[in-house]
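Chapter review: from sequence to fold.
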Amino acid sequence: MKNLMKSIRITLVFCVFFSVCYILVLWIFAQFAAPGEGGNAETVKLNGKIVGVANVGQVFTKDVFFWGRPSCAGDGYDGTRSAGSNKGITNEEYLAEVEARIDTFLIHHPYLKRENVPAEMVTASASGLDPDITPECAYVQVKRVAEARGMNESDVKAIVDKMVEKPLLGIFGPAKINVLKLNIAMEEANPTIYK
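The C-alpha cell string follows.
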C-alpha cells in the first residue's frame, strides 16, 4: 500500500509538471519567437483591419491578386484539416487535378507556355497551408496582375522585388514571398477591393 501511494503521488506531480510547466516553457519561447505579437501568430492588416495571419495561406483567385499554392486542406487552407492529398504521382485522380490546375493557370496566363507553368503553382504543399511562393512564381504572375490593375509591369515587379524574403543567414532555406503580404502591398499601392 505504501508503494501504491508513493506511485500515485509521483504520477500527480509529473502530471502537473508536464501539463503546466511544459506549456509555460512553450509560452515563454513563443514570446521570444514572436515578440511584437505577444507570442501569437503574426497578423496582417489592411486599412487598420486584420485580414489574415501571415503564416497560413489564403485562397486568391481574382486576377488583381497574386495566387499562392493550391491547398488540399479541407476546402482550401483549412487549419483544422491540414494535410496534403497523399496521392502518389501515378494516381490518375491526382494527375487529372494537376492537369486541371495547369489549364486554369494557362487561361489566366495566356502569355505562358505549358512548360513554363511552375510546378509549385499546380501542386499542393504537404501541409496544405503554405503561405509562401518562390520569387519565380510571383514573377510569372506579374503581367496578369499588372494588366488587371491597370499598372505598369515594372511597377508591379518592383513591389515583388521588395517583398522577397532572403534565406536565413543567406544560406538556410529558399528565397520566398509571403502571398498575403504581397497582395496587401499591391492593395496599398493600387487599391481595388475598396473602390
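Two observations follow directly from the output. The chain has a mean pLDDT of 84. The first strand starts at residue 43 and ends at 46.
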